[in-house]
């Protein structure tokens, strides 16, 4: 690895992030650094704040305190000289295209074909010409093994196929980082493998990603860093062999005993 500033500082930086819903504090001072090309797997009990963390990184939720930066740019703000200006909704949409988000429930546009789902964001949010985007979208569908399903609508596809379209869609804006929120949790067991294989392929190809998952095998095989979060705090983080096999905290041990 060459030592660029980016690699030292992290492509994704979360600093001192607090987030509450009413009186419920869901994130209580979260710090996280993800370097380019790294795979970070986030594990933790239901309700611990995993989805909120991803939503804050993607600016689907505003932080109460702290900040998130992607590739040195503060999420939700534009820098003009020394002053920061809060972004307007339109600019937020453009900023968000630097981050690909894959949801548990696929969230494809039901009335659009697989191809149109992939084409949509680069054209409408990034303003790129359709003539340029469409061949790329077809190549992305090939990459997730769905080259022959370009004209299918979501309801004609299995859950595993829909999630693979969702991954192609997330890649279409050429994001710097991909966020996955329990991408296989809504799938029938026999469909989990085909989706994990696509994610593994991307990880091996150097895509920077943060993956919330209960698939401990995936974490063991591909994570550079495993982060255990509980009650809105990162309890411990480190290489899989450390966090999964030699956890330092009782709460991590108790959680792993339940899911393994
Ligand atoms: P996880 O993904 O780890 O299961 P979440 O981040 O979804 O946890 O939720 C953390 C906590 O925040 C939960 O108690 C949840 O009920 C609460 N929560 C999440 N989103 C909202 C919201 N939009 N309004 C109010 N409470 C919320
Ligand atoms: Mg969640």
Topology of this structure?
Elements: H1 5-9, E1 12-21, E2 24-34, E3 39-43, H2 50-57, E4 65-70, E5 73-74, E6 77-80, E7 83-86, H3 89-96, E8 99-102, H4 114-124, H5 130-143, H6 159-171, E9 177-181, H7 189-204, E10 209-212, H8 216-222, E11 225-230, E12 233-238, H9 240-243, H10 250-259
Parallel strand pairs: 3-10, 3-11, 8-9, 9-10
Antiparallel strand pairs: 1-2, 1-4, 4-5, 6-7, 11-12
Helix pairs in contact: 4-5, 4-6, 5-6, 6-7
Question: What features would you describe in this structure?
Answer:
- The chain has 260 residues and is α/β, with parallel strands linked by helices.
- 37% of the residues lie in helices and 26% in strands.
- The protein contains ten helices and twelve strands.
- The chain has helices at 5-9, 50-57, 89-96, 114-124, 130-143, 159-171, 189-204, 216-222, 240-243, 250-259, and strands at residues 12-21, 24-34, 39-43, 65-70, 73-74, 77-80, 83-86, 99-102, 177-181, 209-212, 225-230, 233-238.
- Helix 4 crosses helix 5 (130-143) and helix 6 runs parallel beside helix 7 (189-204).
- The longest helix is centred in the C-terminal third of the chain and has 16 residues, at 189-204.
- It is globular and about 50 Å long.
- The two termini are 34 Å apart.
- The protein binds adenosine-5'-diphosphate and magnesium ion.
- Adenosine-5'-diphosphate binds at residues 21, 26, 44, 46-52.
How many strand units? Answer: 12
Low-confidence stretches: 1-7
Radius of gyration: 18 Å
Ions, cofactors and other ligands present here are:
adenosine-5'-diphosphate, magnesium ion
Shape: globular
Report how far apart the termini are. 34 Å
Main beta sheet strand tally, sense and closure:
6 strands, mixed
Mean pLDDT: 93
Pattern of helices and strands: HEEEHEEEEHEHHHEHEHEEHH
Tell me what portion of residues adopts beta-strand conformation. 25-35%
Helical region count? 10
Strand order across the largest sheet: 8-9-10-3-11-12
Range of helix content: 25-40%
Helical/strand content category: alpha/beta
